[in-house]
Protein 1
Amino acid sequence: MRHLISIEDLNKDDIIRILNKSEEFEDVALGKRRSRILEGKILANLFFEPSTRTRMSFETAMKKLGGEVINVSAQEASSIAKGETLADTIKVVSNYCDAIVIRHPLEGAARFASEHSRVPVINAGDGAGQHPTQTLLDLYTIKKEIGRIDGLKIALVGDLKYSRTIHSLIKALTLFETKIYLVSPPVLELPKEFLEELGGDIEKAELDQIVGDVDVIYVTRIQKERFLDEEEYRKVTGSYKITLETVKKMKESAIILHPLPRVDEIAVEVDYTKQAKYFKQAFYGVPVRMAILTEVML
Ligand code: CP
C-alpha cells in the first residue's frame, strides 16, 4: 500500500489485514507493551481544517511506535499564507518526512497531494469526499465490540449528504455481508448518484421502524461547514437526536457509534449507557492508525 486516499484503495482482504494488525498494536496503544518499529521515521501532519482526534491519534500512534512528527497546523504559520501552492508545499514537505497525513477542505486535495509527493500520502478527510482511516477505525470498533462485521444490520443516521465518514464507511460496509439502513432528513440524504454506484443491501428507513432490530446505530453531526446557505443549515439543525428513549428501544447487544465531534445529535445521558461506544471508538483510532502507518512506511 503506497497512498491511502480512498477506502476503495483497499479490498476486503486489505481491510481484514489492517484490522488484525490493529489488534496486535492495541497493547502498545494501551502502554502495556513497547515498540520502536517506526524509530527513525518522520510523519508530517498537514491539517488545513480543524481536527482533534485524527491529528492527535496519528501523532500518538507515531510517537508510541518510536517515530517523530512534524506539523503544519495553521495556514497562517506556514508559507501557504505567502501564496505557496499546495503542490509546492507537498513537493517540499515530502522531502522532510517518510509519510504525509493531510486534511483539506477541498474534495480531491489528498489525491492531488499524492500526485506531487515522494512519500505515501494518507487522506485524513478531504471536504465532503472521504475519510478512509476513520472508516478503518469504525470497522475495528464494530469488530471489537460485536465480534464480527458480516451479518450485521447497521443504521447510518444524520448527515449522509456531506459526511465524509459516511461516504467512506458505506463503501466499506458493502464489501461485507451487511444490511444498511439510511436514516436522514430529506435534505441530508445520500446523493442519488452516490447511491446508484453502490451495490449491497441498502434501503432508506425511519429510525423508529428499525431501532429495535439493528446492531449498530452510526450517528453523524450535521456538517455545518459544508452548507453554502446558512438558512438551509438552520432548517435541519436539531432534526434528529439519540436519547435515552432511543436506547430503551435498542437491542441489549446493539451499539451506538459516532465519529465525533458531537454537537447535539446524542444526548449526554446516553454516554452512560452500555450501548454508547463512541469514546472507545475514538481510542481505537490509535491502534488502527499504528497499523496504517506501518503499512505505508515499512
Ligand atoms: N472523527 C474525526 O475526524 O474527528 P476530528 O475532526 O477531531 O479529527
Protein 2
Amino acid sequence: MEEKQKTVDQVMHDRMKEMKVETMYDRYQAQLPQCGYGSLALCCRHCNYGPCNIDPFGKGPKKGICGADANTFAARHFLRMSGAGTACHSDHGRAVAHLLVATARGEAPGYRIKDVEKLMAVAECFGVKTKDRKINEIAEEVGEMALMEFGKPYGTLLFLKRAPEARQKIWEKIGIASRAIDREVCESFHRTGIGGDQDYKNLTKQAMRVALADGWGGSMIATELQDILFGTPKPVQGRSSMGVLKKDSVNIIVHGHEPQLAEAIVMASSDPEVTNAVHATGAKRVVVAGLCCTANELLVRHGIPMAGHMTMQEPAISTGVVELMVVDIQCVMQAIVETAKHFHTKIVTTLPKAKISGAEHVEFSDEHAVDAAKKILLMAVDNYKNRDNKKVFIPGGAEPNIVAGFSHETIKYMLGGRFRASYRPLNDNIINGRIRGVVGIAGCTSPKVGVGEESYVNLAKELIANDILVVATGCAAGQCADGGLMIPEMKDACGAGLKEVCEAVGIPPVLHSGACVDNSRILIAVSEMAKEGGLGNDISDLPVAGVCLEWMSEKAIAIGQYFVASGVYTVFGTNSPVAGAPDMQRLLTSEMEELVGARWDFEKDFKKIARMVIDHIEKKRDALGINVKKERKLYDMAERRALERECKPAPSGHH
Ligand code: NFS
Ligand code: SF4
C-alpha cells in the first residue's frame, strides 16, 4: 500500500525533533493528563475562598464554598470565554476605527481610503450623511460613529439592523440585542464574579448578547472598516505553504491579527532604502509572508503568500531562513522566543499592549506606521548575514495553489453577475438542489488532534462531495489552503450539482473568506440569503451550518455563540467547554433551539460531524419544502406549445 505523503507540519516536526527544538506537541505531551476539573469546567477560582472544585462522579463536593453549583461554574466560564473572545475581536475593531479616523484627518501617513463604495455602504447603515460631503469628512464621521459603538450609553448596536427582521425580533423578545460593545464585555465580567449572576440560563443569555456584540459589533467593525482602508477582497491567486519562504531572499514573517501592521510592512518593503539595503546583502529580494490571521488578511486582499496557521509558528521559524518575525497581538505563542534562539531569527513585538519577554520591541503607531515598518525591515535585512545555511530546510512547494478573496460582495458578484449582483442565483441553486447547502468552516488548529492532522481538509472534502459549498476562515482556511482545496480544479472532487455550479462560475468549492473577524462576512451573507427569499425568512430557516473542529481560543467560543444566537447550527470538535455540567450542556445543545432557533453540538469524531452537518442541512431543506421530488409531467402537444409561448424571450428593447 502506498504510504500517505507527510504534511508539511509533519515533515517540519520530524526535523525539529532531530534538531532538538522543542515544539507545542512536546509541551502538550508534558501536560498530559490534563486536569479533569479544568477540562470539565468544574474548577473555580473567581474568589479567594477558592479554588473550589466540584466532583462530578464520586462523593466529593457538589458545590463551591459560596454554594455555586456545577451549572453556575460552567456557565460562568462559558460567559467569561465569550466575553474575552469578544474583547479580542472588538479591541482589534476599535484599533481599525481609530486608524480610519486618523487616516481621514491626514494623521496616518501612508494609509488611505481605498474602498469608497464600502465607505458609503457603512455610512448609510450608520445614518451618516453623504450628500455633498468630502470622502474624508464622511470617513471621519463613520470612524467616530464606530468608536461610539463601543461605549454609547443608550441603544443597541447599529449593525444589528443588517440581520433579517425576524432575527432582530427574536433578539429583542428575549432581551439579547447587544448594547455598547464595552458594556457587554464589562457586564459579562461583572456578572461572573462571586455573588453575581448565578442562574446558568441567565448567564448563557448574556453570553449570547456579548457574543452578538462580537459578530455584529467588534468583528463587523473590524472587517468593514478594514475593507474601507485596505480594500474589499476580490478573487486573487496566492500561495500557502512553508515553501513561500526563499533561500535566496530576506524573509520576514508577519504574525498576529491586525492588518494595519502588515499593510505598513508591505508598503515599506518597496521603499528604495529597503530595496537598496537588500541588494547590498546579496539577497534577491524581501519576501513578506503572513502567519495566522494576519496571513489571511494579506492573502485575501493582496495575494501575499501565507506561511502557515496557528500550529505552524514554531515550524516556520525552524526553516532557518526567517530573518525576522514581527508580531502584533493574539495567538502569538510566547514559545517562539525560545524557538528563535535555535536560529538567527529576531522576534519583534510592536504593540504597547502585547510585549513578550525576551523579544525586541519596536513601537508601532498610526502616525508613524511606515517609519516603524521600515525600521523593522532594515533590522531583518541586517540580520540576513547571520543566517546559518547548515540549518536551512524548507519543505513544501511554492507554486500558486489557492484562489482566495471571497468577501460576501465577491460571492454575490461571482454568482449573480457584475451588473446585477445578488444572492438570487445562489438561492436558486440551493432551491433546485444543485447546492444542498452552505457550511462555514472556521477556527483554530490544535495539538490535541495530533501533528499535521488535516481534519478540516478531510471534512471539507466530505462536504463538497455531498454538494455542500464551503466557506472557510481563520486557521481552518489556512489548513484548507495548504491542503489544496481552494483551486477551481477541485470541482472534480465535488458532487455533480456543486461541480456544475463551480464550473459555470469558475470558483473553487471551498472559498477563502478571510480571517476570524471576517466570520462577520458570513453573517452578512446568510442575512442576505434569507432576505433574498425562497429559503424562509430567517437565518435559522436556511440549510447552512458552522463547524470548528480544533477550537482553541476564547475567540472561537465567542464566534460559535454568535453563530448560534444568529440562528446557525454550529458543531465544535475535540471537547465541550461545559462538559461537567449536564444541564448547561443540554441548554447549549438542545434548549437553545427553542430560544434562538439554533443550537450547539459537540463531537469528537470528525467523520460523525460531517454526517451531523449533512443531516441538519437535509432537515432544513425538508422543512423548506425544497426536497420534494417533482413529479415528471408528460405534456401533450397543446400544453407544450403553450409552454413554448411562455418561455419565449421578450422582444429586444423591452428591458
Ligand atoms: Ni481565530 Fe486568528 Fe487561528 Fe484560532 Fe488564532 S489565528 S482569530 S483564534 S488560532 S483561527
Ligand atoms: Fe469557590 Fe464560589 Fe469563590 Fe468560585 S466564587 S472560588 S466557587 S467560593
